[in-house]
Amino acid sequence: MMLLTLLASGYLSSLSIATLSSGALLGYGLLISLIIAIALSSQRWLLWYVLGGVVYWLAVESIHSLLMSWTFLTEWHGYVAAMGISWLPLFAWVLYRALRYDDVSAALQQQREIETARYIEHSPIYDDDYTPRFE
User: Which single residue of 37, 41, 75, 130 could bond 126 by disulfide (Cβ 3.0 to 4.6 Å)?
Assistant: First the structure.
């Protein structure tokens, strides 16, 4: 958000590859090569976690910027409030699942049904013509 306003104001228009130091170029090159290596490996699902973290933090930053413009919170209190607000949908979903179902997990409910189906009664069942061998 801030980057877009800086670009629109023309502040970053003079930013070019020549302004980056060799250390920054090496770091960005290493970062890009690691991302490409992970994307081509069998562990590419890890990139979804990274992307999810980036999207989550962008949501926290947007909530924080809204709180800063609407309230008189300090920066630290604004971040704490933004993190708390961002966790509200998760708490609401868990509370919904806990109240809607006996078990939060469908797999746990299925596991309990399998365990109850395995119970065997320990009293013997005799036929009509059964006579015990020993009395």
Answer: 130
113, amino acid identity: E
- Cβ-contact 39, 47 below 8 angstroms: yes
Rg (CA), the chain: 30
Cα 64 from Cα 90, distance rounded (Å): 18
How far is Cα 34 from Cα 75, in angstroms, rounded to an integer?
33
Question: Cα 8 to the chain's mean position, in Å?
Answer: 33
Of 104, 59, 54, 94, the closest CA to residue 79 belongs to: 59
Count other Cβ atoms within 10 Å, centred on residue 81.
16
Amino acid identity, position 88: L
Q: What is the pLDDT of residue 107?
A: 79
Nearest to 63 by CA among 1, 17, 125, 131: 1
Residue whose C-alpha is closest to residue 104's, from 117, 116, 114, 91: 91
pLDDT of residue 131: 72
DSSP H helices in 2-45: 2-9, 22-40
